[in-house]
Amino acid sequence: MRHRHDDDTWDLATSVGATATLVAAARAVASRTDRRLVDDAFAEPLVRAVGIDVFERWAGGELDLSDDDCRHVLQWFVDLMAVRTRYFDEFFLDAAAAGIRQAVILAAGLDARSYRLPWPPGTTVFEIDQPPVSAFKTATLAGMDAQPTADLRAVPVDLRLDWPAALRGAGFESGRPTAWIAEGLLPFLPPDAQDRLLDQVSALSSAGSRLAAEVFVPPSREVMRPLRERWSDQGFDVEPSDLVYAGPRHDVARYLAQHGWETVTTPLTRLLADNGIATRAAASPFAGSKYYASIRT
Ligand SMILES: C[S@@+](CC[C@H](N)C(=O)[O-])C[C@H]1O[C@@H](n2cnc3c(N)ncnc32)[C@H](O)[C@@H]1O
Question: What's this chain's function (predicted)?
């Protein structure tokens, strides 16, 4: 059965949109257990606002975790989210320290960096995601009286469409160096759409621009099975591995090199080790995930 098609859409409770709620729930758990790595006070209220019961209870620390198989997968996932959140936070903070004042969060989902990072004055942050996702987050945070810490511009558009036009329409200036992130996004795009996205980012990036991207490896159906059964019992029926596009795709670093970017690639196992979580890393079903930090020369 085909689970995705070229013009599919979603909100935060369905299909790819639900993965944004899933990762925000993991950020809420990580924020409670290890603030050293993540401190995202917006994650739990955003997850509660979406209203997927099993994610609300996990985010709130109310989930029964007596089943070992479920607990292990969730712990690996929280570990991944903790170190990846820190990786992308540091990427933006380093870019800001280097003087970059324009940022773009591709596929922002429930990412609250525009509300929680200490952006230098004069920074504009553009957040791109599907219109229902973007509208929900904006309305929910406004309802909480949350104040962005930068000049935040939501750009509600599908990344398979002409998003550069929408971005320019929101005030993006390609002549200024930009810090871009693609966190939790690329495997949800077909391989040719990933190439196109990197082409478009390159075309919009002046010298000195930076890009951080993640290519995550979703756990196998076998690893996910106990968790999926529980989710399904509790009325939530999304299988994350059905939502990604499998098959060969270009390596991000090699592809970007052809477009004038220099890249440092960091495997997830390195990030886990660097953050003192190495003991659980070897068995992690996400261990093949990679992180790319690139600078446009
Ligand atoms: C796993 S979530 C990651 C969200 C966010 N980057 C984070 O880490 O919290 C995947 C996100 O990608 C977005 N996404 C996937 N494909 C997209 C597309 N074609 N256009 C716009 N957004 C897309 C989804 O709406 C969702 O918010």
Answer: Exhibits S-adenosyl-L-methionine-dependent methyltransferase activity.
